[in-house]
Amino acid sequence: MVRSANGKGAQAALTAVLAEIRALVSEGDSLSLVAKALDYAEYMPLLIADPNDRTDDFRALVEELVAAHSGFADALRELESPTNQAPPPVSAGMLDSLGPGESGEFGMLA
Among candidates 39, 58, 40, which has minimal Cα distance to 48? Predict the structure, then answer.
């Protein structure tokens, strides 16, 4: 688990990291920086999902990325932002309300 000022900071930080990686690739920036950032991004969900408190480890990864490239500063801001709201809990049967052929908000279900 990763504690943050809100319940969603770690996910928002990971999203910011991925967005910056996309920008780096589109700008043709350093492959070694992109590779390092992808390695970190791959590890971040494991820290988020860990039942133990991995906040310090997650923050250290983000801070290392910021030190390597200032474009990752948004990720640190997202981690610390009190404005991200935790999503509401999913109740049992919530997805049962989808009708035949419906695939959910982003088309990823079914």
Answer: 58
Residues 6+ apart with CB under 8 A from 38: 21
Token pair belonging to 5: 């000022």
Question: What is the distance between the alpha carbons of residues 25 and 10, in angstroms, rounded to a whole number?
Answer: 23
Per-residue model confidence as pLDDT tens digits over 29-71: 799 999 999 999 999 999 999 999 999 999 999 999 999 999 9
Whole-model pTM: value is 0.72
Please list, residue by residue across 26-37, b when 16 or more beta carbons sit within 10 angstroms of its beta carbon and e when fewer do: eeebeeebbebb
Q: Determine the angle formed by the axes of helices 55-68 and 31-49, rounding to 10 degrees.
A: 170
Please name the residue that has the structure tokens 């990720």.
75
| Contact by Cβ (8 Å): 1, 54 | yes
Which among 8, 30, 29, 27 is positioned nearest to 78, based on CA atoms?
A: 8
